[in-house]
């Protein structure tokens, strides 16, 4: 099998995510209704679980939409010693 661009999802992850794909699908940034509140609560719970797992503060955990956004964010926030200019695409 070729896992170069993706990998199969762990069934435990799928089980944990499924309710939020089917029943609780609100935007966690929409704070004017219950769907948004439920999603925001779930996101903050997940953020704390990840932080606890790796010994971090939940405020240090950032969720992104995927690899490209993650890579770009990493490049943009990593200081590059000795460089006065940096081009990012």
Automatic annotation (TrEMBL):
Q: Which SUPFAM superfamilies match?
A: PLP-dependent transferases
**Which cofactors does it use?**
pyridoxal 5'-phosphate
What GO CC annotations are associated with the protein?
A: cytosol; mitochondrion; nucleus
Give start and end of each Aminotransferase class V domain. Answer: 2-76
Matching Pfam families, A to Z?
Aminotran_5
InterPro entries in UniProt: Aminotrans_V_dom, PyrdxlP-dep_Trfase, PyrdxlP-dep_Trfase_major
One Gene Ontology molecular-function label? cysteine desulfurase activity
User: What processes in GO biological process is this protein linked to?
Assistant: iron-sulfur cluster assembly
Q: Which family does it belong to?
A: Belongs to the class-V pyridoxal-phosphate-dependent aminotransferase family. NifS/IscS subfamily.
Q: What is this protein called?
A: NFS1 cysteine desulfurase
Please name the source species. Answer: Astyanax mexicanus (Blind cave fish)
Upper lineage: Eukaryota, Metazoa, Chordata, Craniata, Vertebrata
């Amino acid at each position: 099998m070729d896992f170069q661009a993706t990998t199969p999802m762990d069934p435990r992850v799928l089980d944990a995510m499924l309710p939020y794909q089917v029943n609780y699908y609100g935007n966690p940034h929409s704070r004017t209704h219950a769907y948004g509140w439920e999603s925001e609560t779930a996101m903050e719970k997940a953020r704390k679980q990840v932080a606890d797992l790796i010994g971090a503060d939940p405020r240090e955990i950032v969720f992104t939409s995927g690899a490209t956004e993650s890579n770009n964010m990493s490049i943009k926030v990593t200081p590059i010693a000795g460089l006065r200019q940096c081009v990012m695409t």
